[in-house]
Write a structure and sequence with these properties.
It is elongated, with a radius of gyration of 21 Å. The protein has strands spanning 30-31, 34-35, 44-48, 57-62, 74-80, 89-94, 96-97, 100-101. The chain has 107 residues and is mostly beta strands. The chain binds calcium ion (CA).
Amino acid sequence: MLTTALLLPQQPPAPTPDTLPRLSAPIRILADGKPIEAIIGHAAPFVVDYDRDGVRDLVVGMFGSDSEVVRGGTARIYKNVGTNREPRFGAFTTLQADGKPAVMESC
Ligand SMILES: [Ca+2]
C-alpha cells in the first residue's frame, strides 16, 4: 500500500492591531539645510548607497523635470554627508547617463 502526505504551506496569522507595523510620525527631510521638495510632483524616494561609500544616500525620482532642456522623468541624488544612523543630505545632483541628465519616459 502506498501512502502520501500532502504538505501545504501554512497561512501566516492575520494581523491584529498589536502585530501591525507602527510608523513613526512624519518628519521633514532637509537637504543642504532646506526642505526637499519635488517640484514636478509624484516623487519616488529611494534610499540606496548610490556612490558605494558605505553610507546610504537618497535618490528621488520625479515624474518630470524643472529644466527647459530636459523633457521627461528625472532623478535627483542627495548624497548623505552624515552617517547611516544620523543622515544629513547635501545639495542634489541630477542622475547622469553618458555625461548628460538621465531622462526617463514619463506618461
Ligand atoms: Ca553613499
